[in-house]
Write a structure and sequence with these properties.
five-stranded mixed beta sheet, 3 domains, D-Maltodextrin-Binding Protein, domain 2, three-stranded antiparallel beta sheet
Length: about 290
């Protein structure tokens, strides 16, 4: 198999159409059909079920898709790495959830870049499972995640704990309690463990929020527009609290919301690599004591 075959396979898996994929890849339909035939021959199994009306993945195709995407991604990263190293001495790739970069860690990056002008620094955003897999595959040198992966090949180091605050634009007349979570004023975002377990202990197992979101930046915008109140990371809400755009909402939750831990992960087998050491320096400056 080759990269061209894998790119054709991934495109057809996404578009479910040979003709459209051929157009997107700027090749003839006969060429893309030949690539898929050759790939299926090399794997010894059909990857697509073809009818006059549809193209769908076989069970083998569904299984192979994630591997194909990872191989193509690794090939792209290797090409970029070779090109980058013609200008820089090394490339450091760090992956993390978007909210970590947007609100918690960007302040560290500028001084780090000034200290290491010889280093090409690349940031990748994604969810914990994606970032963890990228670290395992070698696409990402250092991952920053909220949920530590259960992979014995990865080193996991605590980085920080984020405080969760109940905030909104307007303060209600009385403190918020468990019953208030059923109110249309409450905006819900699941911040993951241990917040999920804590929240369920308050709301009960059959809770359905009036308004649920899945991204902190959207949540922040809605709260700033006066769309209600909700739990927000202190690193996100702090400057808006300082300027009065948001206020802290009094509540009587006992115990209070748990802190959200952040972890740094990297391949244990690459602990002594230069890129790993530089990445750890970004999060754990030499002047700060650390154990890992």
């Amino acid at each position: 198999m080759d990269i061209g075959q894998l790119e054709a396979f991934i495109s057809i898996a996404k578009t479910a159409n040979f003709t459209k994929s051929a157009e997107l890849l700027h090749i003839a339909q006969s060429t893309i059909s030949a690539k898929i035939h050759a790939l299926e021959e090399s794997l010894g199994t059909p990857l697509f079920i073809r009818t006059n009306r549809s193209v769908t993945l076989t069970p083998a195709g569904e299984y192979f898709l994630s591997y194909a995407e990872r191989i193509v991604s690794l090939a792209g990263e290797s090409r970029l790495g070779v090109q980058t190293n013609q200008r820089f001495t090394s490339t450091l790739v760090i992956g993390g959830h978007g909210s970590i970069w947007a609100y918690g860690l960007l302040s560290r990056l500028q001084s780090f870049r000034e200290k290491h002008p010889e280093l090409a620094l690349h940031l990748i955003t994604g969810y914990a499972s994606t970032i963890s897999q990228h670290v395992v595959d070698g696409v990402v040198d250092i991952g920053v995640v909220y949920l530590p992966p259960a992979n014995p090949g990865l080193e996991v180091i605590p980085l920080a704990e984020e405080e969760l605050l109940l905030v909104g634009r307007d303060k209600p007349q009385r403190p918020v309690n468990a019953d208030s979570l059923w109110s249309p004023k409450y905006v819900h975002l699941d911040w993951g463990a241990p917040f999920s377990e804590w929240f369920q202990s308050l709301s009960g197992p059959n809770y359905i929020p009036s308004f649920k979101l899945d991204h902190p930046s959207v949540m922040l915008h809605i709260l700033l527009e006066g769309g209600g109140y909700g739990f927000m990371l202190k690193s996100i809400a702090e400057r808006h609290l300082d300027c009065g755009a948001l206020v802290s909402i009094p509540h009587d939750f006992a115990p209070p919301p748990p802190r959200r831990p952040i972890f740094v992960i990297y391949l244990a087998s690459k602990k002594n690599y230069l890129t790993t050491k530089l990445g750890l320096e970004l999060f754990y400056p030499p002047s700060a004591s650390r154990k890992h």
